[in-house]
């Protein structure tokens, strides 16, 4: 009888362990949606009973931490949340499930300076041009916003050659963190990635005619064993109930109309 109890206890323990493992989701996410994620992920865990393991990394770039690099070397995940253009590339490679993409938020570019230094304005083209020409150094990210700053914004303002020697790409870490330390005098990145950083002053978004909007989206990874949970998570993150949290982090909600007509990244 005692032996039966021991066997039963072992089977019960193994069964419980399997159940726990079956309720765990691994999510790879880039910085633009991270501020909203840090609030919404625990709420989803509490409501649905899933335990979420978060892995952060850029949507693109050459660093080992970048999401495409992680997937390429076989790191496991159930959901990816990242820049829409980069997500398209993952789908072409067969790394995400076809038809699983969900539009999550739109992100615009803004700028910060070190806290305590005299503030500046970038409300129009002339002000932005003057600020950039006067700045001793300029920093931008290695993701979609940075690619736009370096390859298009400077050219649109007619100052590409003047700022070339003092503009720097920051890989992997938040641009604002280095501005806060005084390494760069002004930094550009998506607003949702600038606002959480202490030690800087947010001076505003780029002027409308110079703005670049990045679409963030999520999808289920091809090798995910937990499709139902992954699908539930993406539905939750795009639901109307969570949009106040999304907007509070500097992101813009994706309306149904926008989801249908907007490209992944809009100039």
CATH class of the largest domain reads Alpha Beta
How many helices in DSSP terms?
A: 12
Number of strands: 11
Mean pLDDT: 89
Structural class: alpha/beta
CATH topology term of the largest domain: D-Maltodextrin-Binding Protein, domain 2
Q: What share of the residues does DSSP label as strand, in percent?
A: 15-25%
Number of domains: 2
Shape: elongated
First and last CA, distance: 73 Å
* Main β-sheet description: 6 strands, mixed
| Helix residue percentage | 40-55%
Order of secondary-structure elements: HEHEHEHEEHEHHEHEHEEHHHE
How many whole angstroms does the radius of gyration measure?
21 Å
Would you give an account of this structure?
With 267 residues, the chain is an alpha/beta fold. It has 2 domains: 2-106 and 215-266, D-Maltodextrin-Binding Protein, domain 2; 109-210, 3-Layer(aba) Sandwich (D-Maltodextrin-Binding Protein, domain 2), CATH 3.40.190.10. It contains 12 helices and 11 strands. It has helices at 2-22, 34-48, 67-72, 84-92, 125-134, 144-156, 160-163, 175-180, 191-194, 227-237, 243-248, 256-261; strands at residues 24-29, 51-56, 79-83, 102-107, 109-114, 138-141, 167-170, 186-190, 200-205, 213-220, 265-266. Strands 1, 2, 3, 4, 10 and 11 form a 6-stranded mixed beta sheet that branches. Strands 7-6-8-5-9 form a 5-stranded mixed beta sheet. Strand 1, helix 2 (34-48) and strand 2 (51-56) form a beta-alpha-beta unit. It is elongated.
């Amino acid at each position: 009888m005692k032996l039966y109890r021991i066997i039963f206890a072992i089977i019960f323990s193994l069964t419980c362990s399997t159940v726990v493992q079956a309720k765990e989701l691994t999510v790879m996410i880039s910085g633009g949606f991270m501020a909203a994620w840090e609030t919404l992920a625990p709420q989803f865990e509490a409501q649905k009973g899933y335990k979420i393991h978060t892995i952060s990394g850029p949507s693109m770039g050459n660093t080992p931490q970048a999401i495409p690099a992680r997937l390429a070397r076989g790191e496991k995940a159930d959901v990816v949340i990242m820049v829409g253009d980069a997500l398209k590339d993952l789908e072409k490679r067969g790394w995400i499930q076809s038809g699983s993409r969900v539009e999550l938020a739109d992100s615009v570019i803004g700028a910060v300076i070190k806290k305590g230094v005299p503030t500046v304005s970038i409300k129009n083209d002339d002000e932005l041009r003057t600020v950039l020409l006067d700045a001793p150094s300029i920093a931008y990210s290695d993701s979609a916003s940075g690619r736009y700053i370096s390859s298009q914004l400077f050219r649109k303002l007619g100052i590409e050659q003047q700022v070339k020697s003092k503009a720097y790409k920051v890989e992997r870490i938040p641009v604002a963190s280095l501005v806060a330390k005084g390494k760069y005098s002004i930094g550009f990145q998506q607003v949702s990635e600038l606002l959480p950083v202490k030690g800087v002053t947010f001076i505003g978004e780029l002027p409308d005619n110079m703005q670049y909007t990045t679409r963030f989206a999520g999808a289920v990874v091809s090798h995910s064993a937990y499709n139902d949970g992954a699908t539930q998570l993406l539905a939750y993150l795009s639901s109307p109930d969570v949009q106040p949290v999304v907007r509070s982090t500097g992101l813009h909600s994706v309306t149904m109309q926008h989801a249908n007509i907007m490209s992944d990244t809009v100039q």
